[in-house]
Amino acid sequence: MKTNNTTTSQSLIKKVWMLADVIAAAGVGFTDYIIQLTYLLFLKMDEEKVQLGLQSAIPQGYGWNDLIALDGLDLLRQYEETLKVLSNQDDLIGTIFTKATNKIEQPVLLKKVISLIESENWLSMDGDLKGSIYEAILEKNGQDKKSGAGQYFTPRALINTMVEVTNPLISETVCDPACGTGGFLLAAFDHMKKQSKDSEKLRFLRNEALSGNDITPLVVTLASMNLYLHGIGTEHTPIRCQDSLERTPTTLVDVVLANPPFGTRPAGSTDISAMRDDLYVTTKNNQLNFLQHIMLMLKNGGRAAVVLPDNVLFEGGAGEIIRKKLLNDFDLHTILRLPTGIFYAQGVKANVLFFRKGTKTKDVWYYDYRTNIKHTLATNPIQRHHLDEFVECYNNRVETYSEENPDGRWRKYSYDELMARDKTSLDITWLRTGEETVDYSLDELMSMIEEKSANIADAVSKLKEIIDTIEE
Fold first, then answer.
1. Pair (91, 171) in one structural domain
2. Burial level of 164, CB count in 10 A (0-12/13-18/19+)?
3. What percent of the chain has pLDDT over 90?
4. Which of 60, 40, 37 is nearest to 50 (CA)?
5. Total domains present in the chain
6. What is the rounded CA–CA span in Å between residue 253 and residue 302?
7. Residue 103 belongs to what domain range?
8. What is the mean pLDDT of residues 374-395?
9. Distance between CA 42 and CA 69 in Å, rounded?
10. Same domain, yes or no, for 83 and 167?
């Protein structure tokens, strides 16, 4: 049966992407195509529920059967009207169809997508199979450089490792305040559902335990559908289309798992300082604001695992204030230093901070998985086994670094040592850099050049703003 499922999964993904190539040639981007696929897939599964004698969640006149009977401009008009009506619905439907618009403007191509979905019975598929197919489509979309969707993806190996060591329990609540397509929430769900067969605990897990926010409507659609296909939030999606940073947390949670967006806040975003009076310090640094938000949304005793860029470890001013708060009011027990080459954006230097609320830090344990580590997405992507030693060290808490073994990657620093450092910097490395080189593909080199050019342009723009302000 497993082989059949694998075959079905691979063949469906192949069909989806063969059609993607056809539609892309007509000027429809991969991400737009996946979004339309999502809308239509939801309508098809609703019709399959009706065939099983269940009630439709779709208003009469705007269901799957109202589309498949049409062709040409009639199909186009009906589909666009359907999206308009469903985007105004409440609960799950309204979230799936958040700000829904049609991007496939050629009727013949729209008909092809509908025919692809019509050829399968989705509802009868095993939940894990449905979910894995959809996740694979999302991940493949993220790998497409033109779509820019990679910004919403964290490597699966890293997600699974963070979930494993944080160990969310089936009775706990888990939140990702910048959830993207829901990777952390799904990994937490998979981890938690194995812990009990009790029906009430599983009901709580599927309907109440998980929550997430994202600022981008299209991503909210993808995340909601991703969870829905895994049997999570089938009536009320746990995903909300909102800017987490704009609101003081009203509900505290047991666990936060997140990879907040790097860089500055999007142009036109609300000034956080004008919306929040609960933050420890005012700053325009997006990562520092997310870190503060996560610190505030944890219950006493709650724990977090958060991917953050290097500047969070050493930036002065607001950064120093927040680090001192983290060391004094939280147990910042572990920092995993990550290598470049594992994210879709090239050259990103990041870390995972693991901390617990309500207990002062005694020691911070560092695992250096950066120095002399070489990964590329094309030739050596990070996999779960690469982090086996980190997981073992995390659980055992025995230093591998010593004077006799200066190449040990697992080392602890005391609270006093860290507080005595300039600006309370947590940016620490002790391993000697080797002479190893890495072979990048031409695409990867171009991406790195483009990213560095964008960073320079951003820096120049900010410098001009400062100069203009001074001259005024």
1. no
2. middle
3. 58
4. 60
5. 3
6. 7
7. 2-139
8. 93
9. 17
10. no
